[in-house]
Fold this sequence. Notes:
Elements: H1 2-59, H2 63-85, H3 89-121, H4 132-136, H5 140-146, H6 152-164, H7 169-178, H8 192-201, H9 204-214, H10 221-232
Helix pairs in contact: 1-2, 1-3, 2-3, 5-7, 6-7, 8-10, 9-10
Amino acid sequence: MTYVLETVAKVASATTRSYVAGLNALIEQQQLAQQASLEWLSQLTGTQSQVSNQLVESYDAATGQVTDVAEETTSLAKRAGAEVVEGSHDAAVSASRTQRKARTQATRRTNRTRSKSASRSTPQPGPARWTREAYESLTAAEINEKLPQLSQRDLGEVERYETAHQSRQTVLDRINALRGQEPVPGYDELNVQDIQKLLAEHDDQVAASVRDYERPRKNRDTVLQAADSKLSKS
């Protein structure tokens, strides 16, 4: 009888130890899974914060692109979260890789939208002294008011641009009226002092050409007076 009792006690003790060991192993596995999950969740939080900042930065430049990035990032984040819920260490590692992929793709997309935004924000060249945006913001009347101040070369640029784009007849007619032969080559680039010197060095024919060319264009009083003075002395 004593032998039987001792045997039963030994079996019970061994069973208890096995149970305790199994319980400890289970607790350790749960702790590892929890730790991996916490580490992943921390990384995911940081990634979501970074992606959110990138989305905000690129919103003004490319609203449509931001929507694509948000949907793609949300999809990847859901996949990563589903993997962690399984509670295994391997799933947490796989989820970490997935969220790194989300961060990389979001960064690349943001860089592309920034590049497109920069391209759109750079002023595009337009005719003569204007950028394209500045010229297209003007009415025909406003353009016609500025045309007399332009050189023959600039008038040619405006004419080509206007013909290729809005082709407003009032603008084209005004340009045609202002086209003409300069009194001397480079006259349009001369200032008042240069023209006064020019008149002093040339004959009445040049003075008459200056007067006739100047009046319907820049119409500078000092230039017209100098030309008239030259002609009155002849």
